[in-house]
Specification:
The chain has 16 helices and 20 strands. The longest helix is centred in the middle third of the chain and has 26 residues. Helix 3 crosses helix 5 and helix 7 packs parallel to helix 10. The protein has two domains: about 170 residues, 3-Layer(aba) Sandwich (Leucine Aminopeptidase, subunit E, domain 1), CATH 3.40.220.10; about 325 residues, Aminopeptidase. The protein is of the alpha/beta class and about 500 residues long. Strands 7, 8, 9, 10, 11, 14, 15, 16 and 18 form a nine-stranded mixed sheet that branches. Bound molecules: ligand BES, manganese (II) ion and zinc ion (ZN). Ligand BES binds next to helix 12. The site of manganese (II) ion (MN) has 4 residues, from loops.
Length: about 500
């Protein structure tokens, strides 16, 4: 990540950047006295000649403060920066952290399209006193700006004529807020770095990221950020009788890996959280092969694993006081003469058997081993993240991850974290009656449950393999793999899960 974030106590007039952005709320929509004073107060940030230019734009109706709106004014030496970006943030009474992320994303994308190399963003003053703290707003602004600028371009010739936006400065005219804003911006920057790494892993093609190299990345990352990493190779996995991991990887030239991360063992006495991430580095479907159209996006079928690695990077940097274990079964699902076939029966780590009716339902087969393996940690809670089913994308699209589990309190807490970070989750039911869809005539369970309720029957399959612990399953098939850009995530890997889990883990022992 080559973007530097700084914070200063200063004014729009004193900063010297290629562009300065200021957020305006939609005062016309709420013409009460309160908004008028707020607007007036905001206008005091500008020298009077510049204020006139802004008022002209408003009078001409070119700018109304609506969300996603932005216009550029040339400041002609009225302030030290040549461009002023007016960014709409919507109704001032309805401000949320997400609106700040989006407004900052609009500002950053606009500045970048104008070829600005540096951008200053004014932290709006009146709103900070209300329900949102200055540190949170500052963090949200950093998240929106940095995440919106992500590009997976390392395989492309560098485009030299286009200067990249490489510095973002948050300004506050209020000296009392300086410290808070600095903390928020620093935390935001660390999180974004972890999200960038997660997106890089997701977007990397499968000839770069396969089980061995995913494990190498986890090792490097553990060294850099300070958590321990243990890698099991194929022989070790065989000796542990992880039949799902072995079975799914059988068709591939690339041997499997089982990646174990551990952070902050000192905090063990307060309880252990286990994060399990699906690490299918490419999913062809195996013998039950997928159609060619959009098969390429299955290079991102390790997004759950990537999110676990990214979460460890973030919690290690933020020094979150929780003992966390990460488990990533990593395989490549290929068809070949040695691949598993429909009808094969697998024996998993915990001794249970599954009938492989469809080799494309491979994620649950490897997760079954990992969920069994998790028991030895006597976890307080296990959360698994997996790009598990197309059915979940049909149900929820790209805006919410499917959530299932056996503990409502933990799920409610995760939902709260989802609303705060806007990595939203939506609970699907695990009614008992769904279980019969995965009954097998020949094994303990069958790996597919028929056409209907596919996200839920996949969840039920996992539930058969959990130990005596609290558990949440997140189906991130839609939220991790974006077919189109969102406000601050381009098409491709979104890095979903990192901000969500960090927020959840921050509050877990409160
Ligand atoms: N990795 C896929 C799920 C997926 C699909 C993720 C689309 C992202 C976008 C998973 O391994 C899979 O193939 N699931 C099958 C299950 C079916 C065979 C029961 C599916 O969803 O079609
Ligand atoms: Mn599959
Ligand atoms: Zn898959």
């Amino acid at each position: 990540m080559d973007i530097k974030v700084t914070t200063i106590h200063g004014t729009i007039s004193t900063t010297r950047r290629d562009a300065v952005a200021v957020f305006f709320s939609e005062w016309n929509m709420a013409p009460q006295a309160a908004e008028k004073t707020e607007h007036k107060k905001l206008m005091e940030n500008f020298p009077s000649a510049l204020r006139k230019k802004i008022e002209t734009a408003i009078q001409l109706n070119e700018f109304t403060g609506k969300e996603n709106e932005s216009i550029t004014l040339y400041t002609e030496s009225l302030i030290n920066s040549p461009r002023l970006l007016l960014i709409g943030i919507g109704e001032s009474k309805k401000l949320t952290l997400e609106k700040f992320r989006r407004a900052a994303a609009t500002a950053a994308k606009k500045a970048s399209s104008l070829k600005a190399a540096s951008l200053a963003i004014l932290l709006p003053e009146p709103v900070t006193s209300e329900t949102l703290a200055a540190a949170e707003i500052s963090q949200a602004i950093v998240e929106g700006a940095i995440l919106s600028l992500y590009k997976f371009d390392k395989y492309q010739k560098p485009n030299n004529e286009k200067k990249k936006l490489h510095s973002i400065e948050i300004i506050t005219p209020n000296s009392r807020l300086e410290k808070e804003i600095h903390i928020g911006a620093k935390n935001g920057t660390m999180l974004c770095e972890a999200v960038y790494h997660t997106r890089d892993l997701e977007n990397a093609p499968s000839n770069e990221i396969y089980p061995e190299t995913l494990a190498d990345h986890a090792l490097q990352s553990g060294k850099k950020y300070g958590f321990s990493v243990t890698i099991f190779d194929k022989r070790k996995i065989e000796s542990l009788k992880m039949g799902g991991v072995i079975g799914v990887s059988k068709g591939s030239e690339n041997p499997p890996r089982f990646i174990i991360l551990e952070y902050n063992v000192k905090a063990k006495k307060h309880g252990t959280i286990v994060l399990v991430g699906k690490g299918v580095t490419f999913d062809t479907g195996g013998i039950s092969i997928k159609p060619a159209a959009s098969m390429a996006e299955m290079k991102m079928d390790m997004s759950g694993g990537a999110a676990v690695i990214g979460t460890f990077e973030a919690i290690a940097q933020l020094k979150i006081p929780v003992h966390v274990i990460g488990l990533i079964p990593a395989v490549e699902n290929m068809p070949s003469g040695s691949a598993i076939k429909p009808g094969d029966i697998i024996r998993h780590y915990n001794g249970m058997t599954s009938e492989v009716d469809n080799t494309d339902a491979e994620g649950r087969l490897i997760l079954a081993d990992a969920l069994g393996y998790a028991s030895q940690y006597r976890p307080e809670l296990v959360i698994d993240l997996a790009t598990l089913t197309g059915a979940c994308v049909v149900a929820l699209g790209h805006l919410a991850s499917g959530m299932m589990g056996n503990d409502q309190t933990a799920m409610d807490d995760l939902k709260t974290a989802g609303e705060k970070t806007y990595e939203r989750v939506w609970q699907l039911p695990l009614f008992d009656e769904y279980e019969k869809q995965i009954k097998s005539d020949v094994a303990d369970v069958k790996n597919v449950g028929g056409r209907w309720g596919g996200a839920i029957t996949a969840g039920w399959f996992l539930k058969k393999f959990i130990g005596d612990y609290k558990w949440i399953h997140l189906d991130i098939a839609g939220t991790a793999i974006l077919e189109e850009a969102l406000d601050y995530a381009p098409r491709g890997g979104s890095g979903v899960g990192v901000r969500l889990l960090v927020e959840f883990l921050k509050n877990v022992h409160r």
